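Q: What would this chain look like folded?
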Amino acid sequence: MTHALAHDPMARLLAMLELSPEPGPGADDRFTGSSLPQPHGRVFGGQVLAQALLASGRTVGPERLPHSLHAYFLRPGDADRPISFAVERLRDGRSFSARRTHALQNDRPILTMSTSFQEQQEGLEHADPMPDAPPPDEVVSARDVLGPIDHPIAQFWIQQAAFDLRHVDESIFVGPAKVRTDRQLVWIRARGPVPDDQLLHRALMAYACDQVMLESILRKHGQSWVSPGLSMASLDHAMWWHRPARVDEWLLYAQRSPSAQGGRGLATAEVFTQDGRLVATIAQEGMVRLPL
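A: My prediction, written as structure tokens:
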């Protein structure tokens, strides 16, 4: 790793997202990717989401951008081993293209994803309004919250995180919030410039959201990331992109959790630009287990 990459989390993430074609038959539809190190040794779910989306996008013309994905996390991935991405071309119509992508380690799928792409078209327009929120420069950064904490995971996060997270209400990194609610507002922005490639920005939006998607479930039940005995994992992920957006500009994730039951919780988010445009909607179900 070069000196520049070692000190630039976003440059390091962008380098990791540069997939390599696999040699041999079907090389146009098979790619290999690496992983960023993680304290627990498992592949970060948002990373494999982003990589699978980029792999599928490589098989579609640049005039068609992803408008939706539906993915299942099947097995934990090993961050020390390469990941293979196999893309299946399901359909190429006049306006839409559909792809199925499998992320594989040891010839076993760790994620499977269906993605739909569409050419830009005119049509009916409406959108939910952005909720009231203070501007990001008035909100405390997660780096400031975690910076004073002398713990390896906290220090790893503030040094390696490629995105700046700013919770409008108090974060739940180091303890539960004072108020129990299923609502959460978080400003998120890349900690460095991102090339002008809308497919890449959409992939990075998928990467970023997986860091916070299940927090509204914890917040509703007065829990935090350090709750004793907490076990959490993403089970599935759905995402719809409505309008172009850049992840190196501030995005507001307006989150809620409509239900939790049976060791699972459902979380949703609407994503807005700072000027109030709704650019994406997200839903994710996760395993959330705590000692009873």
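The chain has two domains: 1-120, 139-292.
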